[in-house]
């Protein structure tokens, strides 16, 4: 009697195909330490491109980029910083200080409409390291 593998034992290795040109372009921009804007309609694969390059390019990825507190949480994890009961302004300043002297690009995935406070923070990050913004856009 032959045993059948259950569906939980089966893992598909789906290749990431058809985006080689975009991947190479992002690698070149990363090598030049350029800021990057990735725009596209919902579901076209912006986050998938970032996920594909996350480890090979050693990117710092903020998967939730709509609120400053979410971004601080993601970057605090990157730097092994405890938020504790610090006020958001102190957390933000501590993250910006931690970025100084580093070289890793920071990706803000799912970026959308921003408050002046969030825009100012992203600008502060961009003065220290390359910034990649991934945002939805219905326009080419």
Short description:
23% of the residues are buried.
Can you offer a commentary on this structure?
- The chain is an alpha/beta fold and 140 residues long.
- The chain has a single domain, classed as P-loop containing nucleotide triphosphate hydrolases (Rossmann fold, 3-Layer(aba) Sandwich).
- It is built from five helices and four strands; from the N terminus they run H-E-H-E-H-H-E-H-E.
- Strands 1-4-3-2 form a four-stranded parallel sheet.
- The chain starts with 19 loop residues before the first helix and ends with a strand.
Main β sheet profile: 4 strands, parallel
Structural class: alpha/beta
CATH fold topology: Rossmann fold
User: How many individual domains?
Assistant: 1
Radius of gyration: 18 Å
Shape: globular
Q: What order do the helices and strands follow?
A: HEHEHHEHE
Give the CATH architecture: 3-Layer(aba) Sandwich
Give the integer mean of the pLDDT values.
86
- Can you say what the CATH homologous superfamily is? P-loop containing nucleotide triphosphate hydrolases
- The helix tally amounts to 5
| CATH class descriptor name | Alpha Beta
